[in-house]
What does this fold into?
Amino acid sequence: MARQQRIACLLAEDFEDVEFRAPYDALVRAGYEVDVIGAEEGATLEGKRGDEEVQVDRSIDDASPEAYDALFIPGGFSPDHLRADARFVRFTRDFHELRRPIATLCHGPQLLLSADVLDEHRLTAWKTVQDDLRHAGVDVVDEPVVRDGMLVTSRQPDDLGQFIPAMLELLEGAAVQGRGAASEVT
It folds into this structure.
């Protein structure tokens, strides 16, 4: 029997509630195991709208990129908090180097920008983040969903109906090609 694929979800306070919940639920329904990785295991994180409270499954100090098949970064203000912490930036950079799927939306590309992994990618993001990315020389387009290799990005909550299927398609394609196979590290 094949091992259940694991997804790392990097999360901090003030995440966009629906940008976490809708993709998270879709991943779980599709059979993925999703670990919420935050600064402190067991901590409760609240979404910026107050609709969601999420418990951190694993501390960033105890998380290894090699243990995961894909990376999910919800939007809201969470990515801005995460990129201020070198541990999350390093995790993101190290994960990108594994050439495994990364799915992010809204403000999520801020963390990718801080990890300095966007110079060869085309993507989209929240409109104000698009400006920041362009100023950094990143190839940015204003489209609901952009898939570029092992990266899928989206702009905002209204795009979730297109983002979620694109994310799941990326993950399934990576699993079929064998690129999403994480080691058995826990």
The longest strand covers residues 33-38.
